[in-house]
Automatic annotation (TrEMBL):
An annotated GO cellular component: plasma membrane
Gene name in the database record: Tspan18_0
Short name of one Pfam family: Tetraspanin
InterPro entries (UniProt xref): Tetraspanin/Peripherin, Tetraspanin_animals, Tetraspanin_CS, Tetraspanin_EC2_sf
Residue ranges of the TM segments: 12-36, 56-77, 84-108, 217-243
CDD domains linked to this entry: uroplakin_I_like_LEL (cd03156)
Family the UniProt entry places it in: Belongs to the tetraspanin (TM4SF) family.
Descriptive protein name: Tetraspanin
Amino acid sequence: MEGDCLSCMKYLMFLFNFFIFLGGACLLGVGIWVIVDPTGFREIVAANPLLFTGAYIMLAMGAMLFLLGFLGCCGAIRENKCLLLFFFMFILLIFLAELSAAILAFIFRENLTREFFTKELKKHYLRNNETDVFSSTWNSVMITFACCGVNGPEDFEAVPPLPHSPLESTTPEACCQRELQSREGVFVNREACLTGIERFQNRQGCYTVILNSFETYVYLAGALAIGVLAVELFAMIFAMCLFRGIQ
């Protein structure tokens, strides 16, 4: 009876991980195709910040699921205690990392306010200084999301303009409109933007733009996170039961 139970658990775990393996392989394949396809999706993805971010998330998730599924399948079908233990530890680390991220997000949620970001931007932003991580990150965000500052261009009134740059007004170059929203994108009219002509500037604040972009996906992301945590718990239970049952 015990042997039949162990055999059933082994094949259930193999089937469970085989589907994880297939899902990871599909995500990995689609992610690579979207990013490297020269005539298909690459231009669309590059023009849309959410799609651009999503493609790389898809790649990372696909690679992780592919590896997890492979380890789980091999460990179950070969009844290899070493692979099963490695599979269990891998999922446990991911589970703990996700749990830690959720706890930290809950603890520091009150810091992620419009006022907090505005204060930090005015205090640390150094315009086009690409050696400064804070400024470089903000420039990337503003270019990618076609936005300016936290609330709008007025956030930069307290930030001194660059020396030897007579064109530049208080609005930084990263707030200027581009034909394609990436660092390689051509400016619509850089000179007019830097001299303060509003129609060539991105006037909307990044806080509102990013919040609106992700608001639609908050509930979906929460449901998905709960589902993933549940799957990880079941996978760890299966792996440990099989590990203890193997002689």
